[in-house]
Amino acid sequence: MVLHNPNNWHWVNKDVSGWTREYLDKQLTQISAERDGVTAKIDKVVSMDGDVDVSQRKGKVITIFDVKLKLEYSVALFLGELTRSAGKNKEGEEASGTITVPEVAHDTEEDEYVFEVDVYSEDSSKQPVKELVRSDILPQLRKAFTQLVPAVMAEHAKDIQHAPGTNPSSNFPSAKVYSSSSVNKSSSSKTEATGSQQSSSGAIVNVTTITDSTEFRTDAANLFQTFTDPQRIAAFTRAPPKNFTGAKPGGIFELFGGNVSGEFTELEEPTHIVQKWRLAQWPAGHYSTLSIWFDQNDVDAVTVMRVEWKGVPVGQEEPTKTNWDQYYVRSIKTTFGFGTVFLSVTYALALTTGVSAVSSQHLVSRQQPFKSTAITDFAEPWAFAFLPDGRILVTERKGSLRIVDPGTKSKGTITGVPAVAYAGQGGLHDVALHPQYAENSIVYISYAESGSGGAGGAVARAKLTLTAGSGTLSDLEIIWRHSQKASGGLQFACRLLFGPDGTLWISSGEINQMTPAQSMTTNLGKMIRLYDNGTAFEGNPFASQGNVQAQIWSLGHRNPLGIDWDAQGRLWEVEMGPMGGDELNLIQPGANYGWPLVCEGKHYDGRTIPKHSTRPDFAAPKAFWVPVISPAGLIIYKGDLFASWKGNALITGLSSQSIRRKCNASQWVNECAVSEKTKTAPSG
């Protein structure tokens, strides 16, 4: 489809997605490799999700695309004398699988492509398959992808280099868009759109109506606040609004760096919002009417969000839906946990001594049968801890501490929880039992607290008195705080863990302030080690310096949301990166992990960050993920129920929605869905 800007013939757009799919299928199926009796080849392009466009903007012809590819490949392994005419002999084997490329984009460098390799019928005899695909097939794919931009331009650029008033020759139908001066107001124009609409610039734009609906596990009031509170908006859009004059009729907003803009026109708290809404790529001055309804089920506090856009330009239906799903729906669910019940998502990873850094391009993915059973529903659950009697304490970010009996599936409330700063990612966070809980009944909680300048993390301990279905916290004492507070409500972290020696570990986020992670005058962006009463551990690497430095075990962390010990007594940590660059780190005393000076990802505005390889003085991650998995928790499995998992780590991923187990140095396997904060039950 070739689209013309009615006000400026220099702005022309052509959708070449169909041609690109055929081109890739033809080019990529020519890729093959043979080594040591193993042959591999790409068989076909299974799917291509996304759009490929060629555009002319003010006389400059460019191509813009960002697609996800899934390829199918086959491999032959010859274990005896090779019979080339038959392709294999009686001792030969065949294997097949898929290669997923999450992002093939116009601006992706050759060394930036990420691959997820899936081998069907996985067993030890297929190890040569993985090695050949990684060593010989993936480099050829990288080379092939670098040729996509010139191929697209050579084939299609000529179609849109034309003068005003002419129509380029192509096999793609043109969308009819008229300037106001060229339309006879008394006549009707036949188009494929549901109607037409005049923008503020005077253009008549063919428009249509699109709808969508999504279920969230939270109440309507929470969702209404998410769309109207500037701190919450900053949290799920990953940056403060470019412009926000208030959630009121006439209130202006510009989000995502100006890529989304509009104006509030109606608000009925907590059920309905109406906005003038547009994407920056739409014709100048053209707005749709976006209506959002929050329909709450009062039985279980599940809310269905219904949206309707009236006045979407024809040809912009898919970009509108895609952007809404990725940058609104998914981001809101992963930021605030509105998409989870008790059981959610994890990754599994086997940890080996001296494991080197592993990018997601090395990951192997394979589905495994696994059953997870929901116990009960929660409103934004964030963490849990098993009590000696088998019951479970569960934190809800809004400030409730629940107690659950898995046997009866009953749920009660623990009173005495302090007030929390519930905004953005803030609220009630982690819960942990004192190592001698059976004797002293002391529990620890972490949470965001309000104060001068905004909110910061805090850790308190209290005595827990239990009844049949509920309980009470008493003698609550705050033993640790972030040394400063900030607005925005982001990146508190504050996971709690007791070490084998009974010391308390706290993963301290940098509350979106970045630079404090490198400062020794603050405890933001650090791994903290304390005695159980909150005083600094005397064996900390900076203990002799006193003050806040005495608390610090390591520094240079962004948003560390998971920590646990392995059988060798080593501490492991996972933390969220920005746009890419989630990390798994082996924590060493006094080590600096580099944030925000180095990272394997990028800033949300696209600015690059030097990689760890450029600064060997910083500790590099043992594994990292591009794209992100949004790691929210970590345990090293020590139970007996899954014997083959012992020593493995379970890493929860808020956005990845799968579980992977690392079986050896190069293999990751999809397993199942479990809680966003994993722990091993008493049963193993």
TrEMBL record:
Bias (Low complexity) ranges: 174-190
Region: Disordered, residue numbers: 161-201
Cited InterPro entries: 6-blade_b-propeller_TolB-like, Aha1, AHSA1-like_N, ASHA1/2-like_C, Glc/Sorbosone_DH, Quinoprot_gluc/sorb_DH_b-prop, START-like_dom_sf
Record's protein name: Aha1domain family protein
Family statement: Belongs to the AHA1 family.
Pfam families per the UniProt record, alphabetical: Aha1_N, AHSA1, GSDH
Superkingdom field: Eukaryota
Organism: Stemphylium lycopersici (Tomato gray leaf spot disease fungus)
Residue ranges, compositional bias (Polar residues): 164-173, 191-201
Lineage: Eukaryota, Fungi, Dikarya, Ascomycota, Pezizomycotina
Signal peptide: none
Any GO molecular function: protein-folding chaperone binding
Activator of Hsp90 ATPase AHSA1-like N-terminal domain segment(s): 13-158
